[in-house]
Amino acid sequence: MFEGMKPFGSIVQFHSDQAAIIGNVPKQFFKCVVMKKRNARPCPDNIGRLFFVFVFNRKDILGSQYICRTPKRSEIMAEANSVLHVKLDGVIGEKTSSKFDVVSMTMNVNLGLSDLLHGLEKAKTDKNVQGIFLELGNVSCGYATAKEIRNAINNFEESGKFVVAYNSGEYVGLGKYYISSAANELYGFPTSTMEFLGLGGELTFFKKTFDKLDIDVEIIRGTNNDFKSAVEPFFLEKMSDSSRLQMQTYVDNIWRSMREDIAKDRKISADDLNRYADEMAIKR
């Protein structure tokens, strides 16, 4: 994969600062409990924002509550000739979020879009970072988020540094391929399933269900509000012409943008991509 390139000194984990915090949670938390009982100093700051209600046998600490502050984000210092490992998995929200798993006593961290874009921008100008290894698992995000990530990858590549993408999941859909197609090189799991079927949309209608349940729905909509179709599923049994028109326009615009982006980076014509989707030519 990296044939012809100079050997790299190390691989930098994109969220290693958060991983270091995660490892200290169980030990620091119980230390915090003991300190609280002994009226010692407050909880240390290197624990994530957690809210616990622990029940002990002793009545004097029954239902005690502990709240600890979120640590400040610290910059990761990369060694010379490093490769930045960016792993995208799960839902990508606007902000980085963390959730404590009581069963495993570990913190599950989901990297947010703002931190991801910030990291890619910093890596672009970091002389120690030679390139990016982009790993995509079961990532889930909307078109706008995927577009932002793609733009950030393209912006990073303007520095002359490489981006290698690897789809590690067993299924590669349009969304994952759209993000990873911005890389210089693109790889996938050998036995994974890939589908390139374009975009579509559907609506769920409730009128027949409401009729069977004898439920009346009061709809307030002006007579000239044909394109305000949010309430149509409650009093119609199928899409109106205006609703179908606006949804088709919306989907077509997104599909055209995705098709043009993929065509530009993969050196494939947009018409061929459209034909592949229509004929279901890429489905294995």
Automatic annotation (TrEMBL):
InterPro entries: ClpP/crotonase-like_dom_sf (IPR029045), Peptidase_S49 (IPR002142), S49_SppA_67K_type_N (IPR047217)
Pfam families attached to this UniProt entry: Peptidase_S49
GO biological process: proteolysis
SUPFAM superfamilies reported for this sequence: ClpP/crotonase (SSF52096)
Domain of life: Eukaryota
GO function terms (MF aspect): peptidase activity
Domain Peptidase S49 as annotated: residue spans: 157-279
Name recorded for this polypeptide: Peptidase, S49 family protein
